[in-house]
Design goal:
heterodimer; A: 207 residues; 11 helices; globular; B: 263 residues; alpha/beta; two-stranded antiparallel sheet; 12 helices
């Protein structure tokens, strides 16, 4: 492992954190970083400001991930999430005012962002998994409009994701459960049939 | 309907990884009983069967990074008719279309589709594993020679679910219990239909070995061959065997005075 001198490391983590957390995380910790392939890397990597000022050098592999975070995918993801959050806020407002067309129009704008958001999946598997599950969940409604609970859960999740885009795959599963509770489910008949042999489809052999 | 249900593998598979009417019916059926018992044997069968299939598909998607290659290999493995194979590929894209179709302006739509389904399968794998012991009100009859190990991710992203089977270095932990039930074993053997199916032949043979050739070692493969007979033998007398596969379970259960019920 290559170790950089302290002079080469200070500042990078702070800048990245501020960017990832909208400038609120000056002394925060960096939890989950993406790899170049988008796969999860180890969790629980904690930066503390004290550590930066100490003599401990930061390994190059951690710095490399931080640089990745500044990639175009990350910037693009944050922009799209901000936009998604805006449309969901507007949809909530419209829904509360019983403006069904207004709410549906905002949801439409939100749906249009799901594809470009998925194209930013190099940010990490947790991020990609959430975007993908939301996409499946809405598609599985088969054209039914989202109800108030569903809009609110999406709004909350998208806002949270904008603050913590580097969540691990495991952490994304906890959020997938919230989506499932309001009827935004990942599973569908295509997946079931695609993964089944003919005998299973008629409820017979499971062996 | 009795108060208690002994849940078989088909119900577990239906609840954990299927959707639609049969899935809903299975959940409703479980809700009708005050007590539902899931034997670990059902978890073992489910893991070897449906669950392992999901893991295999996930790993194929991970390795090939291609939806069409994965799809082609699955079609051959599952011996799907050619027409159905083509339809599935189109359906995969259609299943994701929202207001706009999935953007095939993406640089590599095949890789993108593979990534989408890889993530979906990974989520279903982890979630179903997490939920397996919540399907029934109690999970019962642990198997001493079986380790209930969940999925683990390898460095290349593949999932590892080993061991799929029981420990093969020792005799099956059920052997002694089963040999003490000679009358039941013989009744069950006689109730297995002469259908010509390999599954039935295997079951008949293993029941005969257990009842008659008591010195023969009862291997883990024999335990697998018991299949539906396990549920007839181990279901409590006051419980219904709840299954979607009544055709196979009913003759076995009836032969020893037990009940099999479909959702």
């Amino acid at each position: 492992m290559t170790i950089l001198r302290e002079s080469e490391t200070t500042g990078t983590a702070g800048t990245f954190l501020e960017s990832a957390r909208g400038g609120e995380a000056k002394t925060g910790e960096l939890r989950q970083l993406p790899s170049i392939t988008g796969a999860d890397v180890g969790s629980g990597i904690d930066f503390k400001r004290e550590a930066v000022t100490s003599a401990s050098p930061i390994p190059i592999d951690i710095l490399y991930q931080a640089r990745e975070a500044g990639s175009k995918h990350f910037d693009q993801a944050l922009r799209l999430l901000e936009s998604a959050s805006h449309h969901l806020s507007e949809a909530r407002r419209a829904d509360e005012a019983s403006d069904r067309i207004g709410a549906a129009s905002e949801i439409l704008r939100f749906e249009e962002l799901l594809q470009p958001l998925f194209e930013c999946r190099a940010v990490g598997d947790g991020f990609a998994n959430l975007v993908n599950t939301i996409h499946f969940g809405i598609a599985n409604l088969g054209g039914e409009p989202l109800n108030r609970d569903q809009i609110t859960v999406l709004w909350r999740i998208v806002r949270e994701l904008a603050l913590t885009p580097f969540l691990s795959f495991g952490d994304s599963l906890k959020i997938v459960r919230q989506l499932k509770k309001v009827g935004l489910c990942l599973n569908n008949s295509f997946i079931t049939e695609w993964a089944s042999e003919p005998s299973e489809l008629v409820g017979k052999s499971v062996r | 309907l009795s108060e208690k249900a002994f849940v078989d593998t088909t119900i577990l598979a239906e609840v954990l990884l299927k959707v639609g009417d049969s899935h809903e019916a299975a959940k409703r059926a479980l809700g009708r009983y005050s007590k539902t018992l899931l034997p670990v044997y059902a978890i073992k069968e489910w893991k070897r069967g449906q669950f392992a299939k999901y893991v295999y598909i996930h790993n194929l998607l991970t390795i090939t990074r291609s939806f069409s290659t994965t799809h082609g290999r699955l079609s051959k493995l599952f011996m799907r008719p050619r027409a159905l194979s083509t339809a599935h590929e189109a359906m995969a894209a259609a299943t994701l279309s929202l207001a706009l179709p999935v953007s095939f302006a993406a640089s590599d739509p095949d890789t993108e589709l593979a990534d989408r389904f890889r993530l979906a399968f990974k989520t279903l794998i982890y979630e179903s594993w997490e939920e397996r012991r919540s399907v029934a009100s109690a999970t019962v009859l642990d198997l001493e020679c079986y380790r209930e190990a969940g999925p683990r991710e390898r460095a290349n992203g593949e999932l590892d679910i080993s061991p799929r089977d029981c420990d093969g270095n020792r005799e099956c932990c059920l052997a002694t219990i089963l040999r003490a039930k000679k009358d039941i074993l013989l009744k069950l053997r006689d109730s297995v239909p002469l259908s010509g199916r390999q599954e039935d032949k295997n079951r008949k043979e293993v029941l005969r070995h257990l009842a008659v050739h008591t010195n023969r070692r009862f291997e883990r493969e024999d335990c697998q061959k018991l299949g539906d007979a396990y549920f007839a033998i181990f279901a409590p007398d006051d419980a219904d065997i709840l299954t979607t596969n009544l055709k196979d379970h009913l003759p076995l259960a009836t032969a020893i005075g037990k009940r099999a019920v479909a959702p």
